[in-house]
TrEMBL record:
The keyword Transmembrane applies. Residues 1-22, 34-58 are annotated as: Disordered. This is Methyltransferase. It is found in: Endomembrane system; Membrane. It is a single-pass type II membrane protein. GO terms for molecular function: methyltransferase activity. Residues 9-21 have a biased composition (Pro residues). SUPFAM superfamilies: S-adenosyl-L-methionine-dependent methyltransferases (SSF53335). InterPro entries: Put_SAM_MeTrfase, SAM-dependent_MTases_sf. Gene3D superfamilies: Vaccinia Virus protein VP39. Its main location: membrane. One of its GO terms (biological process) is methylation. GO terms for cellular component: endosome; membrane; trans-Golgi network.
Length: 610
């Protein structure tokens, strides 16, 4: 499938796959199949928000009275049936990381593990079923150590990684003892070793990236030091590792280093980590390490453990030839030096490098050191289906060699509400420091109101939260007082992307196009928040496509808050009713006369069977 908006993508070079009409005939009535083959004209889409006097009626009439709305009244009048569940083999369906689809794409360089989303003719219009015996997820913090086996009924990792203590099955539970490929005896001692070289726990390191994360025990342990980690792994032979991570309540995404940039802005992470992740760091002119360099903050740390580090001591246990390991480490050392990174430690299986705080010295030494070229003028933050390049992403200019490129970042927790350097410097055009402070105040007020509507919000019931249109991250910041984490999603094509500023605040997030599926497994989020999202996508894709994706990633007992103009909310509710969501339209914190309304979905009220 070609992305709806990005430039042509290599996956389009393959011949279009055959439509899944046999499956659709099983899932949809005949008249709806005809409707999907011949989609309605643009006038049958959601109306664009339009403020008129009728919207301000004191009668709190949620029906639309605008001319734009009247054009779709005949469509609304059709009694559309409820959407049923997909066949049972769709339990772990990931549309853009489907093992069956990836076989059509070329192998080599992990390209087949990239996002390959289905086109319109391949999409399924049914709800992803939960596995038999599914139970409400174990609550945090207990979930970090154990989860219900029937929620993720996979035994492969517990068998293949048994000697490394990733996960084991004990009765009804999956138990996570805290082991990993490089720390089979436990993650605590492993992190203690890293702390000798990296200021973990000081507030200086807040955001981390873990490539090849396993079941995310590393990221889970870093939470004890107020560090949030984006744990990334592909859907590969180690099935369900990201699913395990999210079931534990630890931030994670499906992803791979292959052709395209990781979906994060430049200068996002204070630390990047790889524990025996088998990435060929120096292949293709150092392409993958150059991508790590792009997303590392000035002064950020890269931690590498496992082969080939300290190969003289460990080569026998790794069953590798010493000369091969020696050449591999020498190649990594050379590339890191040419990136102007400074090696700060090597002990045991762990080595640590640090990225420079600016490129003044590096630019002067580039010819002498034969550094990779600096990238030509290109948005360093563009990262949605953007190809990686074998060049150094230049840091912002500085006035003096001791300055930090892009501006200094305050330590956590002050960092959360401090003016992000990308805003104070004017990088996010149209947003001032005053706007930022007002946004914080606004979301503090809104969260107080949300607590009334969803009484379980402060109790820890909702651990994994998705903000589908995160803005400046105010929603996530206001929730930081609770035991939750938020995936801050920002539309990839925003005129002035705010995702970099969100990372400046010490929060996690990703670029996203909600006309496609998110890079996660089903049933991985407890609460989904969509502020103005459906108005934003009114001319881009069908509302039902977005709702089905929300339904896929939402846990069966989860909740949704949709915030939008009343006309849009009414249309979304009608579509949401087809999913058997337990929903209601309510006024916002400004009272009944405000044209913006909320659609509150709380599926814990009455879990529907499948």
């Amino acid at each position: 499938m070609q992305p709806h908006h990005p430039p042509p993508h290599p996956r389009n070079s393959n011949p279009p796959p055959p439509p899944l009409l046999p499956l659709l005939h099983l899932l949809l009535p005949r008249h709806l199949l005809q409707h999907r083959r011949n989609p309605p004209s643009p006038t049958h889409q959601l109306p664009k928000p339009h403020l008129s006097s009728s919207s301000l009626s004191p009668a709190l009439d949620f029906e639309s009275h605008h001319s734009a709305s009247k054009t779709i009244s005949t469509v609304d009048a059709v009694d559309l049936p409820k959407l049923g569940f997909c066949p049972s083999n769709f339990t772990d369906y990931c549309p853009c990381q489907d093992p069956k689809r990836e076989r059509r794409f070329r192998t080599g360089g992990m390209a087949q593990r990239e996002r390959h989303c289905p086109g319109p003719e391949e999409r399924v219009f049914c709800r992803v079923p939960r596995p038999e015996g599914y139970q409400s997820s174990v609550r945090w913090p207990e979930s970090r150590d154990r989860a219900w086996f029937k929620n993720v009924p996979s035994t492969r990792l517990s068998s293949v990684k048994k000697d490394q203590n990733w996960v084991r099955v004990e009765g009804e539970y999956l138990v996570f003892p805290g082991g990993g490929t490089s720390f089979s005896t436990g993650v605590k001692g492993y992190v203690d070793g890293i702390r000798k070289a990296v200021p973990i726990g000081s507030g200086e390191v807040r955001t981390a990236l873990d490539i090849g994360c396993g079941v995310a025990s590393f990221g889970g342990h870093l939470l004890d030091y107020n560090i949030v980690t984006m744990s990334v792994a592909p859907r590969d032979v180690h099935e369900a590792q990201v699913q395990f991570a999210l079931e534990r309540g630890i931030p994670a995404m499906l992803g791979v280093l292959s052709i395209h940039r990781l979906p994060y802005p430049s200068r996002s992470f204070d630390m990047a980590h790889c524990a025996r992740c088998l990435v060929p760091w120096t292949a293709n002119d150092g392409l993958f390490l150059l991508e790590i360099d792009r997303v590392l903050r000035p002064g950020g740390y890269w931690v590498l453990s496992g082969p080939p580090i300290n190969w003289r001591t460990f080569y026998k246990g790794w069953q590798r030839k010493p000369e091969d390991l020696a050449a591999e480490q020498a190649s990594i050392e050379d590339l890191a030096r040419r990136l102007c990174w400074k090696k700060v430690a090597e002990k045991g299986v762990i080595a640590v490098w640090r990225k420079p705080t600016n490129h003044v010295h590096c630019a002067k030494k580039s010819k002498l050191w034969k550094t990779p070229r600096f990238c030509e003028p290109r948005d360093p933050d563009a990262a949605w289906y953007e190809k990686m390049e074998s060049c150094i992403t230049p840091l912002p200019n500085v006035n003096a060699i001791e300055d930090i490129a892009g501006g200094p970042i305050q330590k956590w927790p002050k960092r959360l509400n401090a003016i992000p350097p990308r805003i104070s410097s004017g990088t996010v055009q149209g947003i001032t420091s005053q706007d930022f402070n007002k946004d914080n105040q606004l979301w503090n007020k809104r969260i107080s109101y949300y607590e009334i509507l969803l009484s379980s919000l402060p109790t820890g019931k909702y651990r994994n939260i998705m903000d589908m249109n995160a803005g400046l991250g105010g929603f996530a910041a206001a929730l930081s007082k609770y035991p939750v984490w938020v995936m801050n999603s920002v539309p990839w094509d925003s005129t002035n992307s705010s995702l970099g500023a969100i990372y400046d605040r010490g929060l996690l997030g990703t670029y996203m196009d909600w006309c496609e599926a998110f890079s996660t497994y089903p049933r991985t989020y407890d609460l989904i928040h969509a502020n103005g999202l459906f108005s934003m996508y009114v001319d881009k894709c069908d509302v039902l496509d977005i709702l089905l994706e929300m339904d896929r990633i939402l846990r069966p007992e989860g909740a949704v808050i949709i915030r939008d103009h009343v006309d849009v909310v009414v249309k979304v509710k009608r579509a949401a009713d087809r999913l058997n969501w337990q929903s209601r339209i309510v006024q916002n914190e400004h009272g009944p006369f405000d044209p913006e309304k909320l659609l509150i979905v709380d599926n814990s009220v009455a879990l529907s069977s499948h």
